[in-house]
Amino acid sequence: MVRANGSGPEPVTERGDPPRRRSVDAVVVAVALLSGPVVLAGSTASLRIGDSRTAVVFAAAAGALWWRRNAPVAVAWFAFACSAVLVAVETIGGGGPIRPDDNTVVFLTTAAPFAAYAVAVYAARRVSGWAAVVALLVAATAPWPLSWLRLRSGLVLLGVPVLLGLYLAARRRTVDMLRERARWAEADRHAEAERAVADERARLTVDLHDVVTHQVSLIVLEAGALGLTTTDQATRVAAERIREAGCTALDDLRDLVRVLPEQPPAREPVPVPLPDLRPLVGPAALTVTGTPVPVSPAVGQAVVRVVQEALTNVRKHAPGARVEVGVRYEGGHVRIVVRNGVGRSAADARLAASGSRTGLHGLRRRVELLGGTFAAGPGPQGGFTVRALLPGVPDGGSS
To answer: What is the pTM of this model?
Structure first.
């Protein structure tokens, strides 16, 4: 039974390797477990009992915190069950209903603040998790009649950890999104460098084919004509040697022209899983259907750019609008649909007017160069829809 000055929420150490996280979990369990006797000792003035039954309930709730990362909702409901047991133990063991003047008693174990924090960090989008937090608040203010002191204490013990957890969860999602964008930007730079190399190779191929091959062909023709028209035997032999050397050079040049457009083996695109879009989508609804197929790095980057550009346009032109992002794997292809409704607030004129106004055009060009299709336009019920269909690996295996 925790007072308003009871145990606080868990320190923020969510990141790190598994051994470090397990060490943090052990510390959290120990803090919740060891703070139980302190709370019980401080509550003897207002509690009518504080025997081993109450200590067992505190210990069980503290031990459950070991699984708060993997099962935060279950741990929160278990903490509520322990709080309900505290009410029963105090009522039955104390010899009858609790007196109305027991206003300083808050029927929460020391594990309850940690459980509420875990819900905010690991299960912020699950209704069942928030239902457990509300149930904990109800248990904190039980039994009736409700007193303002118990309600205030319960709000402090549960509200502060929940707010801290929500803040840290949002901060972690933002940091993850920034890191993902940095990785995507780095991948884009590498892709641009590879495209520049490919363009230079293509230019050299054109030069060899259109200039060098043409000139060597002229040399071969002139040498052949000289061999046929001259009467000097030495000249005829030299002309034939020039013709044969020119023909050999043409064969070598043709082989080189056939090889140059091809990527060397070390640069062949290796199919990889589609990049994780969850850090980019954020609060938008992401739906993935079908059996995932590996895609080339160029296709993965194109999918990221389609979603990124669509979400940017929503923020600029329809702030607050509901967004749905769908990814569907079908027949070796990847279909992306980004649909948003009407904005909940007016768009900022300066923000909407910013940019080069070539984003959708650039997306269409990127997608079509990879052998896909692209479409964007207003939805039937307002809002805007962006659609793209991309092959898992572009024709020819180019990246």
So the answer is: 0.47
